[in-house]
Specification:
The protein is α/β, with parallel strands linked by helices and 188 residues long. Helices cover 31% and strands 21% of the residues. Helix 4 runs parallel beside helix 5.
């Protein structure tokens, strides 16, 4: 059975212009092609007429790049929603908390999710963990996600690629199945 036969939903998490400002988020972003890969996935998804859900983060801090009056709040040009595609705005890491995402998915009898977005270790991870806990068959696409350098509890610096790969390793086999975009396209 092809993945498309399960009528999966594509969930795009926080693919917003703010994440082009690397220094703001810790610098040294890995996978700088994540938006382009996400755009390719979205275009293929639309061609198959499968459900799409756009998630965006709206910070409550007016100084944040993700505050709703700042340019960074806008969706990246590679993945701009069409008027018929749901846009869900959240204020926390999970796309399920304080939103009607689960209700919309359940109303459409969707039980399979493909998650892409930014950042791997924050909102993508949190949304994926909740999706897995809710019982959705969940896939995360590794090259359609990205992370930034992080500073550890003792001031040590962790490289973005390590953060990205570790976050994906923590999700894979427990909350989701991690695929590349090539694997996703071959399974659709």
């Amino acid at each position: 059975m092809k993945l498309r036969d399960k009528r999966p939903a594509l969930v795009l998490v926080d693919i917003q212009k703010a994440f082009k400002y690397e220094a703001y988020w810790g610098g040294n972003r890995n996978n700088k092609n994540a938006e382009a890969v996400s755009g390719m996935i979205l275009n293929n998804w639309r061609a198959l007429k499968l459900p799409v859900f756009h998630i965006r983060h709206s910070s409550t801090n007016p100084k944040s790049l993700l505050y709703n009056l700042n340019e960074g709040f806008e969706f990246d040009d590679e993945v701009k929603p069409k008027s018929i595609e749901p846009v869900i705005t959240k204020n926390v890491n999970s796309a399920f908390i304080g939103t009607d995402l689960k209700q919309q998915l359940d109303d459409e009898s969707i039980n399979t999710l493909v998650i892409i977005g930014i950042t791997t270790n924050h909102c993508v991870s949190t949304t994926t963990r909740m999706a897995g806990n809710y019982g959705y068959e969940t896939y995360v696409i590794s090259d359609a996600t990205a992370a930034f350098d992080r500073v550890g509890i003792n001031g040590e610096k962790y490289d973005s690629e390590i953060i990205h790969l570790t976050a994906l390793a923590n999700l894979n086999g427990e909350f989701a199945t991690v695929w590349t975009s090539h694997k996703l396209m071959s399974e659709l």
